[in-house]
Design goal:
By secondary structure, the protein is α/β, with parallel strands linked by helices. The protein has a domain of 221 residues: 3-Layer(aba) Sandwich (Rossmann fold), CATH 3.40.50. 36% of the residues lie in helices and 20% in strands. It contains nine helices and 14 strands. The two termini are 25 Å apart.
Length: 324
């Protein structure tokens, strides 16, 4: 299949890369090499929304609503299943483990105490944060093992540059790499050379001429990480078209999985779509009431598929035709 490289290559040629691009490349390369040498599978999770600046000296921007709930929750569950996780997340969106404590409540769960000698200390009220002990235990285990690498982005351009760089690094490491592309990526942008240099005047109506963001899934699958296991997400508001859209994406990009969900029920029901099957995953109300998360079930099923993919890829690389 011929790849139309003009769109995405032109995009990168006209946008400014983030200042930390090479630093991130080195960090991801070192992290991934270490964990592959240790025999761990690695998942790159993208999470949160993307901001589209309206000026080069940005004051205003267009944003989307994603807070990073699915990505951050999924990261924790992948870590529990023994994966090393590269977490590419939007600035100020939810992070693994940190998501369990609301920033607004952090001061409410702590008390300032002084003893009789005048020494002061801080005491945590676990009754106000009943999951804190378990969350802290799991977080410290991950810190000791070094299985979580956090990489932050803000704008759409930063995200796309970082995604390409990470894919190029991880793409050399074979089928043991999974891409879990849960970030909500903006569909439109304003090229740098078309943006106002300074704050847009507020006089009169505002007219914007935006261009469509090139679909980076195509070069990721076909060029940057050809041997990786790739999971994309499809969010729709119309239940009648979601399955069709998911299958169209699989056909167009030739990757392994689409996790499809409807906006209004995304925390309760998803459908995992592959070229050969559709698997519905849902959360009964009693499980939701107990604080269980649909991401735990999603991750378990995807890991099963990833293991099958690794096995099939190993057979093919050894020159043996898989059994039919």
């Amino acid at each position: 299949m011929r790849i139309n490289m003009a769109d995405w290559e032109e995009y990168f040629s006209k946008q400014t890369p983030p200042a930390n691009l090479e630093e991130t490349r080195n960090a991801v390369s070192e992290f991934a090499a270490s964990h592959r040498n240790a025999g761990r599978n690695i998942v790159l999770i993208t999470s949160g929304g993307t901001a589209v600046p309206l000026e080069n000296n940005t004051v205003r921007f267009i944003d989307n609503f994603s807070s990073g709930t699915r990505g951050s929750a999924s990261a924790e569950h992948f870590l529990q299943q023994g994966y090393a996780v590269v977490f590419l997340y939007r600035q100020h969106s939810l992070q693994p483990f940190m998501r369990q404590i609301s920033p607004e409540a952090i001061l409410d769960i702590m008390d300032f105490k002084e003893d009789r000698e005048g020494a002061s200390h801080i005491q945590v009220d676990e009754n106000r944060a009943p999951n804190l002990r378990e969350v802290l235990k799991r977080y410290q285990e991950v810190q000791v093992m070094g299985t979580l690498l956090l990489v932050e982005f803000n704008t759409l351009s930063d995200y796309l540059f970082l995604l390409r760089t990470m894919a190029e690094v991880l793409g050399t490491m074979g089928p043991q790499i999974m891409f879990y592309l849960a970030a909500a990526v903006s569909d439109f942008y304003i090229p740098s050379d078309s943006m106002a240099e300074h704050k847009i005047s507020s006089e009169g109506p505002l007219e914007l001429n935006m261009q469509q963001v090139p679909k980076m899934l195509s070069p990721l699958v076909k060029l940057w990480a050809r041997n990786a296991f790739v999971v994309s997400f499809k969010l729709e508001t119309d239940v009648n078209i979601i399955s069709k859209k998911a299958r169209e994406a699989l056909t167009k990009y030739n990757h392994q999985v689409v996790v499809s969900n409807i906006l209004q029920t995304r925390k309760k029901t998803v459908v995992i779509v592959t070229p050969s099957q559709e698997m519905a995953i849902w959360m009964p109300d009693n499980e939701l009431d107990l604080g269980k998360e649909i991401e735990a079930k999603i991750v378990v099923e995807l890991i099963k598929m990833h293991q099958q993919f690794i096995g099939s890829s190993t057979i093919i690389m050894q020159g043996i035709s898989p059994a039919k």
